């Protein structure tokens, strides 16, 4: 079996997270994420040296919520109702100190080629 690496960088994959969540995560090499980061920083190039780390991080958070985390399963409100994923909810979760580990997991997984290739191999094997 051969895995086409360019597809691995484009197609989002579901990853288990915590006990009962799954996150649909795209690779950080996906063109839309790269373009979003390039565009947001290019438009602020003259301001970058004056921006705080927190301001720069806020820009990456928004791009990550829009282009890396594509969906989730298992997120529920206090009444047990599913909470659908939106970019706005993703930004909210990523910025919440109580859920910062979600953001860290998304960034780590999106940048980990081995994790992506393993998921593709398991999918191809029917696991």
Task: Summarize it.
With 127 residues, the protein is mainly alpha-helical. The chain is built from six helices and three strands. The chain has one domain.
Output the keywords.
127 residues, mainly alpha, 3-stranded antiparallel β-sheet, 6 helices, 3 strands
Description:
By secondary structure, this protein is mainly α. It has one domain (13-125). The protein contains 6 helices and 3 strands; from the N terminus they run αββααβααα. The protein has helices spanning 5-8, 31-42, 53-67, 87-95, 100-110, 113-125; strands at residues 13-17, 21-25, 69-73. A 3-stranded antiparallel sheet has the order 1-2-3. Strand 1 (13-17) and strand 2 form a beta hairpin. Helix 3 packs antiparallel against helix 4 (87-95). The protein is globular.
User: What is the overall shape?
Assistant: globular
What oligomeric state best describes the polypeptide chains here? single chain
Note the beta-strand portion: 5-15%
Question: Separation of termini?
Answer: 15 Å
Q: State the major sheet.
A: 3 strands, antiparallel
Mean pLDDT: 82
Structural class: mainly alpha
Q: Provide a count of the helices.
A: 6
Q: What are the low-pLDDT stretches, counting only 5+ consecutive residues below 50?
A: none
Total domain modules: 1
